[in-house]
Every structure is written in structure tokens, then in C-alpha cells.
């Protein structure tokens, strides 16, 4: 049963999304969508972590806003969310979420719920240590010390008129970077002219277009290439048995697409992920839509994130994921020229594979609905000839709770069971191939598309046209309003 206060909170959140959406001229507008639990967590976190986290609250809000924005991708799915019994799914969830990971019952995971204590790391690593699984890896660098003079402003698109960016721009020399004008705001509805050219642009956001060079799935059937976006964040850490502990217990490696601004805010958590055998890849500096940026800004976003990771870990990632999946042929060419091959999530039967976890802290979907939608996704995944990759997040306590207590367990307990691996593992890459310093093969030329997809310059199979579109649009706003109506109808 859903208590009335919870319902009001849900509707209030939906309403605020709607209002913000109406006023939005870009993703930033969504920064107003705050949720008590996450903000409380962020501010208490900043007390216990290093210098840059002074802005953790706004950073989290901004990223959550970003997450909110990216939802539009599945706004259609959302409004079509099975209103099928919250009671049934809650029961299933309670049975599946084990008690040993400090995860609340599914029905109590919601916006505004009391925040748990910030987890802390149980294992820390000293400079000079090397990851045992990564042959030839450089030792961990000197302990990271933040100095504001060394870095661009957190969560803002970095300035391009700097020596660093000018130096990184030289990496594009000799590469064919398509002359595609930046989109207005990375959304389909925000730029009708660009939308009309979506196929020529190879624009994923608007029509689901991919290139043969994109990693869009895992080759082997029933294999889930597990990834988490937007961290590193404190809820990944081991204490209180959260994400890293769970992955360790289940012997699962995952791929973390990290935001540069978070890397220098939580360097020890990044180190813990890397040293535990997880893969680290680039997810930009500020988490803004890349197709809306100039070439120089894209280079700055990727370059600063790569530099942050290299400074903290001593290694340089060879893969990236565009925030919101907002990628086109220009962004791809720049990423590849800088030595970072794009990875996106699978478009399966029924649309893009999204855990919808970010909808729950955004207040637009309940945890029970999220879990129910995810079970549908797993059902769809069994129909595919290949494996798959799904959008999932580790920035928020709620999304970590959903992963640890529910989605990962659902896949492991599924009959037949899924095989959970990192994306590099599912592609049969060597661990060293994830980083420039240790690579033995050039990942930009590895042929991994043959077994998975056949999408070069064609729409992603199964993608229902603009269903891949980012949400910051009138369409998505009405979809969210629709969600409110659906929820009302199903709950009252
Ligand atoms: C699963 O596939 C069905 C049929 O195509 C679709 O309606 C549904 O939205 C899909 N769900 C997910 C989560 O992929
Ligand atoms: C990898 O291959 C690409 C495409 O041939 C090339 O541009 C790039 O320089 C190569 N990278 C390395 C590190 O050799
Ligand atoms: C990549 O896979 C495709 C499809 O199987 C194949 O035709 C092509 O020759 C392969 N390319 C390389 C470089 O192995
Ligand atoms: C890929 O698609 C092209 C064009 O539709 C087709 O000719 C080719 O046979 C496909 N290749 C594979 C491996 O499915």
C-alpha cells in the first residue's frame, strides 16, 4: 500500500519536473529538482571528504538534473510503465533484496526517505601500490591533493582558451572530424533542423543512430556488461555493504563511467574501484550534452576527465560514454581521435535498455515500478541473440540501493541466470586494454561489432525512432504529466 504522504510527494515531484520542464531552455534548468534524501547525503558527505566536495551538493544536484534530463530517453517507456501490481513487485522485491547489504525494502525506497549514513571505505591503498590483476600497470601516483589552480571549475564546461586544451586539440590533427554544427541543446525537440538531419549526423539521441565503431552490446547471449555512470560517489564504497562490497561478494567486475568533477572530489573511491578490478572509463567533466558543444569544448570535457583519472590512478582510459547517450558522428570522431572508443547502452526489443533507476530519485517512477520495468527488460534480453548493456547509476544512494538490493540480484537469480561481467570482459578484451599505458591491442580497431550488432550508419535495430530522444522537451514534459496521471490512476 502506498501511504498518502508518499503519494503527495510523488505527485509534487512530478509536478515540479513538469514546471521545470516548461521553463527549461536547457538541461541546467533541471538543477532545481532536488530531493531531500540525496541532498542531505551530499552535504553530510562533504564534511567528511576532501576539498573539492565543498560543491558536492550542487554537483550532485546538477548531475541529478542531468539524470533527470536524460530520462526523456525513456519517457515513452515510462508512461507505458506497467501499472501492474505494485503489491506483487514489492513482495518479489522483498524476497530478492537480501538483508545483508543495508538495503531498504523496495516499497520504502523513495524520494525524501531518510538518508543512511555515508558509507566509508574499508580498504585504502597507498601510493606506489599496483593493481595485481593488471600486468605492467604503473604504480598508484602520489596521493591526490586538490588545488583549485590545477583544475577547471567543477561541473561547468571547461574553458577552451587554455594551454591544456590547445595541446589536446593537436590530437585531432590528421583525423577526419565531420563538419557538423553543434545541436542547440542536445535534445531532439530543441533543434528541429538538426533532428531533420539525424541520420546523416549519426545522432543517437534523435533516432538511435549508431556507428559500426560504437560498442552497443556484449557479443554473447545472456551476458550483461554491467556499468555504472556518474560517479565515483560515496555510495559505492564498501562499508555498510554497498555497491563495491556486493560486487566483490558476487565476484562481478563492472565498468564505471566516471565524471571528472567527481573523480577529483572522491579520488579514494575511484582508487578503490580500480584496485578491486573494476574498469574505469570517461564520462566527461561536467555531464552536459556533447553534441551541443564546439570541438574545443568536447576536447576539453574529455581531456580534463582523462587527465583527472590519470592523475589519480596513473592510467588513461581507452573508452568513453557520452552523457545522456548524446553522441553523433562529430563527437564520435573526436573521441576516437583522442583514443577513447564510445560505448552506449543496448537498444533491445521495445527500446533502449535503461534500468530507469534515475527516475526514482527524480520522483517520476516508484521503486516498485522501476523494478517491474527492469524485470520486463530482463525478459526482453532473453529474446536477443547477443548480450546487452544497460544504463545504470552509482551517484545516488537510491540508485545504489536499487542496484545492490534488486536489479543485480534479479539478473543473478533469473531463470535462466544471466552472466554478469564488465564490458571489457564481455568483449573478451584483456584488462590492460582498458588503459593506454597497459594496452596490448589497439581497442579502436578491435572488431567487436561483428558478434553484436550491425548498425553502421543505420538506426539501431529495434529503436523506435525518436524514442531514444532526450527528454528536455515539451514531449517529455507531457510524458511526465502522463506518468503522474498513470500513477494516480493506479494508486488511488
Ligand atoms: C520489452 O519489450 C516490450 C515489447 O517490445 C516493450 O513493450 C517493453 O517496453 C520492453 N521493456 C523494456 C524494459 O525493455
Ligand atoms: C589505434 O588505431 C587508430 C585507427 O587506426 C589510430 O588512429 C590510432 O593512432 C591507434 N592508436 C594507437 C595507440 O596506436
Ligand atoms: C569484422 O566483422 C565483420 C562481420 O563479421 C567482418 O566482415 C569483418 O571482416 C571483420 N573485420 C575485421 C577487421 O576483422
Ligand atoms: C549488415 O547490414 C548490411 C546492410 O543491411 C547487410 O548487407 C549485411 O549482410 C549485414 N551484416 C551482418 C553481419 O549481419
Automatic annotation (TrEMBL):
GO terms for molecular function: chitin deacetylase activity; metal ion binding. The keyword Chloroplast does not apply. Residues 222-423 form the NodB homology domain. Gene3D superfamilies: Glycoside hydrolase/deacetylase (3.20.20.370). It is a lipid-anchor; GPI-anchor. GO terms for biological process: cell wall organization; chitin catabolic process; fungal-type cell wall biogenesis; polysaccharide catabolic process. InterPro entries: Glyco_hydro/deAcase_b/a-brl, NODB_dom, Polysacc_deacetylase_ArnD. Keywords: Carbohydrate metabolism, Cell membrane, Cell wall, Cell wall biogenesis/degradation, Chitin degradation, Cobalt, Glycoprotein, GPI-anchor, Hydrolase, Lipoprotein, Membrane, Metal-binding, Polysaccharide degradation, Secreted, Signal. It catalyses: [(1->4)-N-acetyl-beta-D-glucosaminyl](n) + n H2O = chitosan + n acetate. Belongs to the polysaccharide deacetylase family. This is chitin deacetylase. The lineage of its organism: Eukaryota, Fungi, Dikarya, Basidiomycota, Agaricomycotina.
